[in-house]
What we know:
Death Domain, Fas, about 55% helix
Amino acid sequence: MARDERVTLLEVHQALPDEQFQSLKFLLEGQVPAGLLLPASRPELCRILLQRFPGNSLRVTAGILRQLGRLDLIQRFKLPLEEQTPEETPCEANGDTPKVRGDPTSGHHPGRIPAAPMNNRRLTEKDLMQVAQRLGKEWQEVGILHLGLERSRLEQIQEENPSNPVLWNFEMLREWQRRERHEATASHLQSCLEHARLDPGILDFLRSLQGN
């Protein structure tokens, strides 16, 4: 493995504040076992990524940084953008129902139910993480007043994820998602948060998921 790849990867990790470094590890859980990720320091995470993605660790990291909104780091370190994999199409990455090549559901076909419109799809964990990144310190107020969650549950979330406000926000949103089930859509969350005191960028982001 190239020395430059290892050095660049470590510099990228060191440029992340602790909260975003923890979020980066969280978003890697689908590709790396959580048991390896959670206790990993920055140098240890570099070693894990270099072993699991030889020659491709910077590309994988760039994909996670894009989810975290750190395009500045992608540009600063000239990271390659993550390539689309055969297992994940762009619509799957956004949480849409994928259209399989040659699948009759992609067109008008008798007896087939067309895919649900984008604004009716359930929010993905990636969507929730992007909202969580933007939520401020009044997250409990949002959870109780606007999402209808119990204060005791929010306090439990805080105890389970010490010193990581982004994960507090994320777990709160996941709790709401579990309760709402199929109704946990971008349009529904937008209506819940419409009158909350929060970053207007959150509502803009949710509107963008609806294709507005």
